[in-house]
């Protein structure tokens, strides 16, 4: 099994988990509010489907992807929300069908990208493995939004490692999007997965460290939890500051998470 095969297998598993949560929801369940901004369960699934469809277009339909890029240029801060709002108007049963079909089509398209070829995207072009990892991150994060809205406790899984990987690798971007200077200081990251395995990044001898739960770091990196509410610790001033701005997704960071005690 190739690295891409393994990542796509995890993407399928993450998507199926969320699919099982929403498949049996009544209409009022799809209307449950999931975010302070008012996104419902329908918005969450619509957003995931839109991103899958856009990823597919980037691989197989340059003209369609060009139209999306033009919309992004004309409304860089609102085009995704606009597309999500439109797609969320679909009846839940129809939205579920197109989301499922889109996932299958994207899986096949990613497997068909020639070795060494990159896929155009809104930022740097991405390898199929990187794009699949990004899809796991988004599905994982939005799945948490849905689960909390409908009263499901999210099971911890090793798939959170993909989310952590992006969060660590995107450290320079976290500074950039905040208008801060990357201090260029090495940080060793050591996180524990749900099976007790250790996930590591960075030099062994780095003077600064981040340690703790991999699941909780993923929640922090997707900005689903405040630092006060996660089992993640920093040693060193730069590591401590990074944990306040860590971000695994592209775009503006949005409002900072509120501690659970203040909700």
End-to-end Cα distance, whole Å, is 45 Å
The proportion of residues in beta strands is 5-15%
Helix-strand category: alpha+beta
Number of helices: 11
Helix content: 55-70%
Which residues form runs of ≥5 with pLDDT under 50? none
Written as H for each helix and E for each strand, in order along the chain, the element string is HHHHHHHHHEEEHEH
Number of DSSP E strands: 4
Mind summarizing the main beta sheet? 4 strands, mixed
Mean pLDDT over the full residue set: 96
3D shape? globular
Largest sheet, order of strands side by side? 2-1-3-4
Query: What Rg do the Cα atoms give?
Result: 18 Å
Question: Can you describe this structure?
Answer:
By secondary structure, the chain is α+β, with helices and mostly antiparallel strands. Helices cover 55% and strands 8% of the residues. The chain contains 11 helices and 4 strands; from the N terminus they run H-H-H-H-H-H-H-H-H-E-E-E-H-E-H. Strands 2-1-3-4 form a 4-stranded mixed sheet. The longest helix is centred in the middle third of the chain and has 23 residues. It is globular.
